[in-house]
Design brief:
Length: 350
Amino acid sequence: MLIMASVDNLTPRRFAPAFPNVEANRYLLDYVKVHHPEFYPGGALSSQPACDGGGVHYTGLYYACCVVAGNIWHPMEGRDSTKYEEYDHPFLSTSRDPSDREARLTIPDDEIIRPAPIGKAYFFPVPSNTNHRRYAIVPSFDHRIPPDGVKIKIPAPWLSLDPLHDDPNSNNSYRSYRECFATLASSSPQRPSPQDLICCLTKEYLSVDFCRVIPKSEERWFIGNDMQKYSTSNDQHNGPLNRICNVMPFRLDALGYFGQGHLSLVPKLDKSTGLYTLPTHAVRYPKELLNPRGRLQFHDIFHNYLLYPHPIKWIPVEYLFTRFAWTLFSDQVMTLLNDAKGVTFPPAPS
């Protein structure tokens, strides 16, 4: 005998959130582009959607250019300085001329760089370069050499991430989650089941799996640059890129976007505390999201959220910075080489 459920016991349908208003949020669909002084007009060193309230946070934009230009960041971060020698280091400018000091971009109090006004453009000049406006770039992630920690150190925003930062509203389930990772980071050979974890972005248990911070596709680069020396876990049998210190749990939709490089993790300064946080950052919109509403919904759901537990608790800062750099070498972000079809680059170092 088939027993029908009472209408009174049915769960009310939960509707998806309303689509964002395109006209009211069109400023989020614009792009902030920074060009190489020698190759303009043309593609950009870095082209990122204006997801941070109609612009891009300065930290992510400045270091994106520095990475593509070959790890040439400076502690002053190209900010305004009264010191004459500061002009020997790269900075954002509205002029292609590296000697034009008056054109140095003034960084707003909110640290957000808006798109260049109509008729103008942003450039990334390197005054110390002997060839005036021309300087070399790194053509692909395979060609990139990571900071060695001696001559070139990891940038300060990444090094200053606070490992004690955590969710102030954490509950018992989060405490057990942190205990789980504490065990995994030890010499325990047990690998967690995805069903035992929650997404560190959405805080949901459903459809969660692991995503590598440094992708499996970059294993040759990883081994060739001896990145294993930064590993903080001993689960040797899982392979160098499958260790606990290189994985993060995400809900499957977030995992797809993070795994494909649409989402990055970028330190942003919290001026109320003077500390850097590490939220998600939409470095590029998925190509399949052609509808503006889809792109705005992607922004609303995935951009600028803190992850809990804080990734710095179990992932080496060298891996987090590598992850940031990896997302930049996309034909949607570094568009400078999009017209260089047929150009042959020297092979990446073995």
